[in-house]
Amino acid sequence: MEIYIDGAAKGNPGPAGIGVVILQDGSPIKNLHKFIGNTTNNVAEYTALIYALQEAIILKANKVKVYSDSELLCRQMTGAYKVRHINLKPLFEQVKHLANSLSSFEIKHIPRTENQQADKLAKKASEQTKY
């Protein structure tokens, strides 16, 4: 299963949303977008990853490859960067917990131009005013 994720926050912090595009064998099977309240872009990125992994588990995926245009998120998840911000630490731990239930989890940084669909969903969600 391949999943493209993005988080968006207008104002950073500000109204935020997530976008998730799930593909199985190269074919889209589910798109998600959700308003998550007022928060930072980095919290929105982590929240998108949490939703993506939860959906993968619900869909009974074993091997998941996630693509994100957030360099910070990808480098923190691979251990290249430490998670220092207090608001990100519990989200990081939740992602690790979810990822441990999969037989294989990989996250890869991609350019924003390769993540347009998830970006569009996240921006759409950030423009909503309720959950």
Summarize, please:
37% of the residues lie in helices and 34% in strands. It is an alpha/beta fold.
Description of the structure:
The chain is of the alpha/beta class. The chain has one domain (2-126): Nucleotidyltransferase, domain 5. It is 37% helix and 34% strand. It has helices at residues 41-58, 71-78, 89-99, 116-126, and strands spanning 2-9, 14-24, 27-39, 63-68, 104-109. It has a five-stranded mixed β-sheet with strand order 3-2-1-4-5. Strand 2 and strand 3 form a beta hairpin. It is globular, with a radius of gyration of 13 Å. The relative contact order is 0.27. The model has no long low-confidence stretch (mean pLDDT 96).
Tally of DSSP helical segments: 4
The mean pLDDT is 96
Report the portion of residues in β strands. 25-35%
What is the CA-atom radius of gyration, in angstroms? Answer: 13 Å
CATH superfamily: Ribonuclease H-like superfamily/Ribonuclease H
Please provide the ordered H/E string of secondary-structure elements. EEEHEHHEH
Shape: globular
Strand order of the largest sheet: 3-2-1-4-5
CATH classification class: Alpha Beta
